[in-house]
Amino acid sequence: MSAESANPAVNMDAIVSLAKRRGFIFQSSEIYGGLNGFFDYGPLGSELKKNIRDCWWNDMVRRRDDVVGVETSIIMHPKVWEASGHVAGFTDPLVDCKVSKQRYRADQLFFAAVVVDGKTVGYVSALESEKTTEDLQAAAETFKRKKAIQGTLAPVAPRDFTEAKPEEWALIPSPATGEPGSLTEPRAFNMMFETHVGPMRDSASVAYLRPETAQGMFVDFKNVVDTGRVKLPFGIAQIGKSFRNEITPRNFIFRSREFEQMEMEYFIHPDADWFKCHEDWLAWCKAWLISIGLPESHLSLYEHKKEKLAFYSRRTVDIMFNYPFGVQELWGIAARSDYDLKQHQQFSGVPQTWFDEATKQKVVPHVIEPAVGVDRILLAVLCAGYAEEDVKDEKGNVEKRTVLRLSPRVAPVKVAVLPLLKNKEALVGRAKALYQKLQRRYAVFYDDGGAIGRRYRRQDEIGTPWCVTIDFDTIEKPGDTFTLRERDSMQQRRLNEAELFALLEEKVY
Ligand code: GAP
Predict the structure, then answer these.
(1) pTM of the full structure
(2) Which residues contact 17 (CB under 8 A, 6 or more apart)?
(3) Strands in 385-507 per DSSP E
(4) In angstroms, what CA-CA distances link 229 with 34, 69, 223, 364?
(5) pLDDT tens, 384-441?
(6) Residue ID of nearest Cα to ligand 1 atom 27
(7) Measured distance CA(13)–CA(18) in Å, rounded
(8) Given ligand 1 and candidates 36, 108, 210, 242, which is best to mutate, with the most ligand atoms within 8 Å of its CB?
């Protein structure tokens, strides 16, 4: 077999369809019609997700001497969220359409004045997309034609709804109805999910599902310092669920309402070179993404504009990924100053300090925070790995194969063990023995159903890097060798058990 051409036409429909078909990701509560912004991970998806988490935890926590891990509770004291600023400020601007009852994030609802011969004759709107400007220009042309307006149409100048002047609100058409007059003015919508702790449902029992894992690390800073024998600079890392009542969850698992974060708060001395530390973490995060198989060509950096940063933030740079729906934030790396610890010190009354032996002074450390979503990485891994290609079989016939080129580090199944025939006891016995030995250390799959080519194809589609076929040479010839078939090159070679384990040891870490 040989690969003729790679098909770069990855689109979200193909990814969503594969994810469902092969048991990676399902809509949550699907039999009840689903719940917008919530997802379930199926047998392969949960393995893939676990591998991403494990790689991050091993590299970030176990393989570093300066980072320790914690697991903090999802529901914390409500004062935590007052101190962090989330109660007052964790909001998105919301716009309602009074007619259609649709809700929009104001910063994702774009509009433009229709200007003919220098005069504004109306407004058009469009939801944010890769081609917002083209959509608005087309809408402006249609508007002019429908209203039979003569003159020269100026190129549109898109703005988002948060930039609209109050006198423009009523003039901008709703994307749902196409008519002006139904959009409300933007208002701040707090994205934290509320619940109640204990049997009373009153204002005193209000608590929140955490919208980020980070506050768990800040609130436990003192506990870790007092018990962990840590010295500045050091980090506290955590993986866990976060919840945000997003106004417009979208792009599959990219923006959901329940998701998983991997965050690390790196505490540094106030006099340390924070910029260098920030740069170092940026480089670390990028290299880590490449180590789990994301191509460097799909990654880019976006530096947040100074004037848009929170007042306490010194610098934020996002690592962006080129998803099929556009280049979007994957990993945010923020220099957060001493804001969080100082806020908790003030709200709790408990000093959040570290004793500097050199100067014999207590200091409140500053923080560099790399924060990333597991689900966003998983989606990036699927999008980068997906390919459809024409391949030739042994007889020269061209057929399509769908392949997920996943790194062996994250692939949900590392090896598929395939006896050539299922009714030959010697083949099955050897295959089962190998399968059980591999199973002790790796996620492996045993498949004895159908032609060998079809079995390879099934594994290609779920990203299994290697298939091992137990054939007649295995049982009849000396050396106890198997056929190893490599997913990406589709090349085959013979190797024995020790060589197979050595290969796995090298590639799966
Ligand atoms: N503690 C800082 C913090 O939470 P963030 O930029 O709001 O920063 C960090 O979130 C990362 O979490 C994002 O870069 C993204 O990967 C992920 N994330 C945020 N909101 C998400 C959502 N609604 N769905 C999936 N992932 C999300």
Answers:
(1) 0.93
(2) none
(3) 386-392, 398-404, 415-419, 444-446, 466-470, 482-486, 492-495
(4) 47, 13, 11, 17
(5) 999 999 988 778 889 899 999 999 999 999 999 999 999 999 999 999 999 999 999 9
(6) 373
(7) 9
(8) 242
